[in-house]
Amino acid sequence: MDxxxxxxxxxxxxxxxxxxGVGKSAxxxxxxxxxxxxxxxxxxxxxxxxxxLDLSKTASVTLSIWDCSSESLKSxxxxxxxxxxxxxxxVYDITxxxxxxxxxxxxxxxxxxxxxxxxxEYCVLGNKNDLFNQIAVEEDQAKEMCKILNLPYYSVSAKxxxxxxxxxxxxxxxVCKLPFPSEEKKNDKSLEGSIPDLRSEVxxxxxxxxxxxxxxxx
Length: 218
Fold this sequence. Notes:
This protein is an alpha/beta fold and 218 residues long. Helix content is 28%, strand content 23%. It has a seven-stranded mixed sheet, with helices on both faces.
């Protein structure tokens, strides 16, 4: 059955957020277009891309993936970028300790905006696992934090593409509230968590088929 013939069509917003240089844009480009940008270019505002996935014989989803730049964390537009997200992927760079340490504060910002939505899915991505000789954050540390926060964790590489399809596919099934294929159910043990409420700590916070597109919002 072609994408156009699916009986059930979902549309979901996925927000990818983290500090500068962690590889958010590269992750999205690799996942959506199978392209890795060799030269770093800092994003401005918020870019978004789309990708279509077949979830079953009768269901498909269009993921609108928002690439939220680090500059946006201080922008008056941040609430607009976050609002309406069905899932949020918090990204850090395993070779940059400060990017990992910032994850909790970014979570607080996001949750303060999504205060009325209890159905948002969250996960943490440790990017650049291909740079294993430059590790500043041990995977055990990241897993321990995610265990405390009850969040799924993925060790990924935008350059190599490792674990990206798995991550986005799992998130897609979760936000669409569809059962996983039986073989994935058996193997996946990391998707049961939901983010704890951190808002009390916030002070004064004002085969897949694919198509892709990119837009800038400032």
